[in-house]
Structures are given as structure tokens and as C-alpha cells.
Amino acid sequence: MPSFISCGHSVDMEEELLIEKVCDLYHKISSLESLKPCHNVDTLFTQLVLTCIPPNPIDVSNLPQPLQDMRSKLIRLCGQAESLLETHYSNILASYQNPLHHLHIFPYYSNYINLALLDFTILTQHSTHLPSTIAFVGSGPLPFTSIVLASNHLPTTTFHNYDVDPLANSMARRLFCAHPDLSNRMLFHTTDIMDVTTELKEYEVVYLAALVGMDKEEKTRIIEHLGKYMAPGAFLMLRSAHGARAFLYPVVHPSDLQGFELLTVFHPTDEQQQPPPLPNNKILSTKCSDQIQLFNPLINHEEFAIEEQSS
């Protein structure tokens, strides 16, 4: 296996062991003929996730370019595998008369239960009312976050799910046909979010999935677009990554949130979480308006809140 660490790059033993393990798994995963769910695929990605879940101080932005290139490719492979996994289980769920009664068959359903609770907790800490409309960008064939939020926490909210893939939206719609409530509150739009402008002003909250915008430039363009067209005071919820989990998901830095006031960055620390992991950071920001407020951080969680002045 070729070395990715240049002679001039200094890393400690913990980082070196992590990088060696991730590189080894990257080569094995990239050599697979298919990323569709099977024993070998599941085993390799489970090993990758378990390698990256434990807290690690590594800053991937300081890694040499060969490692940066490997990381970018690995994130795309993770995204492909995650999409194929969701497609697989969306098809299985659609075979039931009432698909939403069987969500527990998805092996990582409990992760989404925790994720939605975290989302709801953060929102209620910073909003005086429950949102009537939410947009989820990058919902995919199995829109678990929308489902759990709508079912468990936001019983009157309408969800507008955006995805560029018409097949993903078609598969997702099938899951709600038999549900008298969610079939009316779960709407799907097949379009690139960069083509959505005036409609964005209708949403009180916009979620941006971790794998929408697979590199920094693309992610930044999407955030700038949302900042341009979202309504003043609306919330943007981002999924990002920190430490070793940045080998699995793209990273969003506070400096990337131009046009928004950063409210909260939440760092999950649950190492017992079943793979695949939740993205390591939860970032809540609001579209800048004339009046900027400083929000208090959530209690008993590792996070921070800052003010950013509107330009």
C-alpha cells in the first residue's frame, strides 16, 4: 500500500494509527465491485465507522494533499453506500401494507430516533413556536429524519423534501400512501436546490443533509444560495463532521456560514452509537436580519454560540 504521509508532515502515534487504518479500509472499500448491501460491504463500513467514532483530535484540514484526495473519495464512497442501503430498505418497507409500521427493520433506525430528538431539542431552545413548514434538502429514498420529526415531535408541520433524484423521491412517496396523516404532510420535490429561489422564503426551517455538497466548494455554494433566498429569521440546520468523523462526512466551518448568524454547534459524544454514525456536529444558524440576538448555549452539552453581524 503506498504511503500517504509525506516526510515533512508530522503526526503523533494516535493519528498515524488512525490514518493507517482508514487508508487500509479505503483501499479495501474502493476495490469492491459493488457497494450494495451484503456481508462484505457491511463489515468493511462497520469497521470504518468504528475506527472513526472514538474522539480524536485530528484536524483533517492539516493533512497532506494525497490524504485530502483519499478522504474526498472515501466520503463519496460512504455517500454511495448509504444511498444504496437506504434504497434497499426502502424497497423492503414498500412491500408492507403499512410501511411506516415497520421502520424498526432498518438496522440503524435508533440513530435517527436520536438525531430527530436532538434536532427538536435544539430547535425548541431557540424558537418561540413550532415551525409550520420545514424543507429537508437531500431527503433520499428513505427520509427518516422527516418521518421521525413529523411522527414524534412535529405533528402539525408540513415537510417539503427535496432531492435531485426522481427515483429516490418516487420510492420515498410509496412509504406514505397508506398513512392518512403523513401522506398529506410529506411533500416531495425533484429539483436541484440551487434552482429553488422564491420558494425558500416559505420555510421556517431548512435542513441540509450531510452528503449534500460533497466538497467544500459545493457545500459553500449551497449555503450561500440558501442565505440569499431564505427568509430573514429562518433557521438553517446543518450536518457536519469533526475529528476522525471527517473521513466519513464533509466538514462545515462557522466561517462557511456567510449570511447567517451562528446559534449553536453541538458535538455528540455517544461512542456506543451503532454505525453508521450521526454526523459529528449539529449546527444551527439563522438567516441574518436587522436585529441580531445572542442565544444561550444548551445546558450540559459541548457547544458554543457566537454572534455574526450581517454584512
TrEMBL record:
Residue ranges crossing the lipid bilayer per the database entry: none
Q: Which InterPro entries did the record assign?
A: Nicotian_synth, SAM-dependent_MTases_sf
User: What's the family?
Assistant: Belongs to the nicotianamine synthase (NAS)-like family.
SUPFAM superfamilies membership:
S-adenosyl-L-methionine-dependent methyltransferases (SSF53335)
- Recorded GO MF terms: nicotianamine synthase activity
| Protein name (Swiss-Prot/TrEMBL) | Nicotianamine synthase
Q: What is the lineage of its organism?
A: Eukaryota, Viridiplantae, Streptophyta, Embryophyta, Tracheophyta
- State the organism of origin: Senna tora
Q: Which reaction does it catalyse?
A: 3 S-adenosyl-L-methionine = nicotianamine + 3 S-methyl-5'-thioadenosine + 3 H(+)
Which PANTHER family is this protein grouped with?
A: NICOTIANAMINE SYNTHASE 3
- UniProt record, GO biological process: nicotianamine biosynthetic process
Does the keyword field hold Oxidoreductase? no
